[in-house]
């Protein structure tokens, strides 16, 4: 289940409906609370909450390949919410959740490149395009596109990326793969190691989400 703090963060990204839901006292996330949240987002009850999925443990990884070396990192602490009624998608990733095989590389990433103390989170808020109706979700990957705003290193940019949706064991699986250029987000690579890091890195997203109560 999503934590209250996670719901508040994602509520800011998704809008007033989830914010109202997140701000309800523990033990009072009932039909009255849901009705308030639903009214705020102009969505009927109970469909909006029956088709809202979330996770605290989504995964984002990136891979950089150059003739000098390959660099890979993974973050398994990504909070996400997917609303299959409105098509809205949001995630929040703590930058210090990105880990590397080599400690020194991880240290350089957080201190010199991502500046994780100054910019502690990466966020995305967007919409699934050509959203399949909830009843038509299949137990096989269905192609979708996700469009929205990615904020990284304090820089916001509009992106549109391909992905898939799938229902598996009552869970919603969302995947996406896209290329990201560090320079687009004002991430400076020191000249000493510039040839070690690709100008465009491959990003993979995997969110395994369960129905929110």
TrEMBL record:
Signal peptide: 1-24
Domain called Lipid/polyisoprenoid-binding YceI-like: residue spans: 74-205
Entry keyword annotation includes ATP-binding: no
Source organism per UniProt: Hymenobacter lucidus
UniProt xrefs under Pfam families: YceI
Protein name, per record: YceI family protein
Record's keyword terms, sorted: Signal
InterPro entries hit by this protein: Lipid/polyisoprenoid-bd_YceI (IPR007372), TTHA0802/YceI-like_sf (IPR036761)
């Amino acid at each position: 289940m999503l934590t209250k703090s996670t719901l508040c963060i994602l509520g800011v990204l998704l809008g007033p409906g989830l914010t109202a839901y997140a701000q309800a006292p523990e033990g009072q996330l009932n039909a009255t609370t849901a009705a308030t949240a639903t009214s705020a987002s102009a969505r009927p009850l109970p469909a909006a909450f029956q088709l809202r999925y979330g996770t605290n443990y989504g995964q984002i990884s990136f891979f950089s390949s150059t003739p000098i070396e390959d660099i890979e990192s993974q973050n398994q602490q990504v909070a996400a919410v997917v609303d299959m009624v409105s098509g809205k998608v949001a995630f929040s990733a703590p930058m210090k959740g990105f880990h590397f095989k080599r400690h020194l590389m991880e240290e350089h990433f957080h201190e010199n490149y991502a500046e994780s103390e100054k910019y502690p989170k990466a966020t995305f808020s967007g919409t699934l395009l050509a959203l399949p109706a909830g009843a038509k979700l299949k137990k096989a990957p269905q192609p979708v596109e996700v469009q929205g705003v990615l904020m990284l290193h304090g820089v916001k940019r509009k992106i549109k990326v391909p992905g898939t949706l799938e229902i598996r064991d009552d869970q919603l699986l969302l995947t996406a793969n896209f290329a990201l250029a560090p320079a687009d987000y004002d991430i400076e690579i020191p000249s000493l190691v510039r040839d070690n890091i690709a100008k465009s890195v491959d990003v993979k997203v995997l969110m395994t989400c369960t129905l929110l109560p």
